[in-house]
Amino acid sequence: MLRILSLILLFIVGSKLQVLQARQPIRVEGLFFSDSITIADSTGHVYKIKMPTEKKRKHPKRPQRIDRGIMQSVFIPKGQWMTGGTVSYSEHEEDNLNFLVIKNVTGLGYTFNVSPYVGYFFKDNIAAGVRLGYNRTYLDMANFELNLGEDFNISLKDLYYLEHQYEVSGFLRTYMPIGKSKIFGLFNEVRLTYGYGVGKNSTGSDTEYDGTFERSHNLQIGIAPGMTAFVTDWSAVEVSVGVMGYNFKWQNQKTNQIETGTRRTSSGNFKINLFSINIGMTFYL
């Protein structure tokens, strides 16, 4: 663009110097190698024309990054597969238990949970995968009494509860080594879970029997942080806390095959519960 302007300007100056054109040829200097043009004739007259130049734009200064000394090290490389699972089981049994206002409790119950999963590391220290889950909760309480005073007593007999819960989750897990260690590391798992459950609960027996059948749908968005420790080159023990996040649940009930009821709940939980710690094993292939 500057060279085109130079030629146009030279043409205008040349039209005003008709007297010089009658003399010896004009000598032009600095047309292509300088920011100005010098025109001289044989008589010694010199005409110096300064060429227009583009103004340099001032760019704002970019903030400098702070070196925090965080090293990007590979804990689990790209291209590896991971598979494993967690299992938990708890059981309780009461025989004529008395505790504060709770009297004469007799019952038996347990909770069983299994959750296998598989994932693939599409990037160093980052894996995506699928997790399945099954949970069974059982309670059979023959007697339960609540004594809040002489005028307020509650007595229940033959309490029964059973629920099956099925879950499928998609997860994204990121790892970070502890310091420069290749054995110990931290991880965080982001999950999107859908659950479907069926259950029933009842009270009484014979002619006083009252039973309710229930179906539930559950949607959960949450995170599950934890710690891993390699025991061999291809296997590790993992400890994680319960899922923290948002939970939405829809329940439909039918009592005695006649009455129906619904319930919708939503909750947010970002507290770490030390009583919901899961221990599992993971294998890296």
| CATH architectural category of the largest domain | Beta Barrel
Helix content: under 10%
Oligomer: single chain
Total helical elements: 2
CATH class categorisation of the largest domain: Mainly Beta
Which residues sit in consecutive blocks of at least 5 with pLDDT less than 50?
Answer: 16-33
Class computed from helices, strands and strand pairing:
mainly beta
Rounded mean pLDDT is 78
Radius of gyration: 40 Å
Report on the architecture of this protein:
With 285 residues, this protein is mainly β. It folds into two domains: 49 residues, no CATH class; 204 residues, Porin. An eight-stranded antiparallel barrel has the order 4-5-6-7-8-9-10-13. Strand 5 and strand 6 form a beta hairpin. About 6% of the residues have low confidence.
Provide a quick synopsis of the model.
By secondary structure, the protein is mainly beta. It is built from 2 helices and 13 strands; from the N terminus they run H-H-E-E-E-E-E-E-E-E-E-E-E-E-E.
Supply the key terms.
mainly beta; 3-stranded antiparallel beta sheet; elongated; 13 strands; 285 residues; 2 domains; 8-stranded antiparallel β-barrel; 2 helices; Porin
SSE blueprint:
Blueprint lengths: L1 H15 L1 H4 L5 E3 L6 E5 L5 E5 L30 E19 L2 E22 L2 E22 L5 E25 L6 E20 L6 E21 L4 E6 L3 E12 L3 E11 L8 E7 L1
Antiparallel strand pairs: 1-2, 2-3, 4-5, 4-13, 5-6, 6-7, 7-8, 8-9, 9-10, 9-11, 10-13, 11-12
